[in-house]
Specification:
The protein is of the alpha/beta class. It has 12 helices and 24 strands. The protein has a 7-stranded mixed sheet with strand order 1-2-7-8-9-10-11. Strands 18, 19, 20, 21, 22, 23 and 24 form a 7-stranded mixed sheet that branches. A 6-stranded mixed sheet has the order 12-13-14-15-16-17, with no helix packed on it. The protein is elongated.
């Protein structure tokens, strides 16, 4: 049975929700599922914007058929060919063999590489600024390379102000019957999933997102229709400016909040003890916006997400085989891979002999952009002593002073 939602006059959401997938891209945990969004426009010509992952393929096809209500499918606009959006393409071509495809030249190449039976004579390969008229609706195509694949584009309907934004402005989490961001307590329920999606999927490409935001700034956007997560509409006051502001922060690596994120790597509890004491000392100094994570038991996607949120980071690690404890080492590698920058950091190191973790963590941070390391290191030799407590006091003072600048 079909299950679709009306977005605006003539436009319908025809996607599906996947609550069975455990790992998005086989990396990132999904505890609340994910939606795969696609949209059908009913004009003089009918248009499908993107397809969906095969996990929701049956629902997706039933939704298209219901919205078309016997009409043929004339056009398929492909904004992004990653398989979680293009996997149902072959089924669409089998059911509507006369459909005309619109995509970027690179998208056409990618589809052929993935083995989809796309006939060149049925494809219009579009460039930046080109348009297509479907009746009363005219759309323009805008390149969005590396947001987050090189073939990506977004499509803007100049008639009703709908931006089909591909993976931009998307989010983890299934829609659960609702469609619009303003139908949720987005800031309370969704923002963490939206941030984790952006930072881990798109986060490396801040300059490219900035380029897209500048292009979007010249458009009179009334709706943002992403390929994952809820639809944004201008009629809900403040909602589109809200998500644009978040993207402005994330894509410029500007912290959302002044606060301290403490990430520790502890084998027998002594490094954890130092991290706990530091957190308590920060609260005593009026720094209440703190979060603590055990790097060994927290998936790195959550660590990256919160690091895009907070202004200050404390790395506390035991020395392991004369190096950084492996999960902490992996966290630092992910930070660099995702281009994380513009944070203030502090170091706590531990070890029983040849303590090296502090020096090595500083070297890792030095390989990133605009990372400031406070000159208040704490060294723990196996377990805490009175001198360590004094050093933790000094570190708490330094963090509190820096936060209150």
């Amino acid at each position: 049975m079909n299950c679709f939602r009306k977005v605006t006059d003539d436009l319908y959401w025809v996607g599906g929700n996947d609550r069975r997938l455990a790992l998005f891209e086989n990396i990132h945990p999904l505890y609340h599922g994910v939606s795969y969004n696609a949209y059908v426009l009913l004009d003089e010509k009918t248009v499908l914007f993107d397809t969906a992952d095969w996990a929701v393929g049956r629902q997706f096809i039933e939704n298209i058929k219901a919205v078309l209500n016997g009409r043929p499918l004339d056009y398929l606009v492909i904004n992004h060919v990653e398989p979680d959006h293009a996997a149902s393409l072959e089924e669409v071509l089998l059911r509507w063999p006369d459909v005309k495809l619109i995509m970027t030249p690179k998208a056409f190449t990618f589809l052929r590489n993935f083995g989809y039976p796309v006939e060149p004579e049925k494809v219009r390969q579009v460039k930046e600024g080109e348009t297509e008229c479907f009746g009363k609706h005219t759309v323009t195509f805008v390149n969005a390379p590396m947001v987050h694949w090189p073939e990506a584009m977004v499509t803007f309907d100049t008639t009703n102000g709908v931006l089909f934004s591909a993976d931009a402005f998307g989010s983890f989490r299934s829609l659960d019957g609702k469609l619009f961001a303003d139908e949720y307590d987005f800031a309370g329920e969704w923002i963490d999933d939206a941030r984790r999606y952006y930072t881990n999927i798109v986060g490396k490409y801040g300059p490219q997102v900035q380029a897209l935001l500048k292009k979007a700034g010249g458009l009179e956007i009334q709706f943002i229709c992403p390929l994952h997560g809820p639809v944004w509409r201008a009629s809900a006051e403040g909602m589109i400016p809200y998500i644009l502001d978040k993207y402005q922060h994330w894509s410029t690596y500007t912290p959302e909040e002044q606060g301290v994120m403490i990430v520790y790597a502890s084998m027998y509890g002594n490094t954890e003890n130092a991290a706990e004491i530091l957190a308590a000392k920060l609260v005593e100094r009026g720094i209440l916006n703190t979060r603590m994570y055990d790097v060994s038991s927290t998936h790195v996607s959550y660590l990256i997400s919160d690091l895009f949120k907070y202004s200050h980071l404390v790395l506390a690690s035991v020395t392991y085989n004369l190096g950084i404890f492996p999960p902490m080492h992996n966290f630092l590698a992910d930070m660099k891979a995702l281009n994380l920058q513009n944070r203030t950091c502090a170091i706590i190191e531990n070890g029983s002999w040849a303590i090296q973790s502090g020096k090595l963590m500083k070297e890792a941070l030095a390989g990133m952009k605009k990372m400031t390391v406070l000159d208040s290191d704490v060294t723990v030799n196996s377990s805490l002593r009175e001198q360590s407590l004094s050093d933790l006091d000094a570190l708490a003072d330094a963090l509190a002073a820096d936060l209150k600048k």
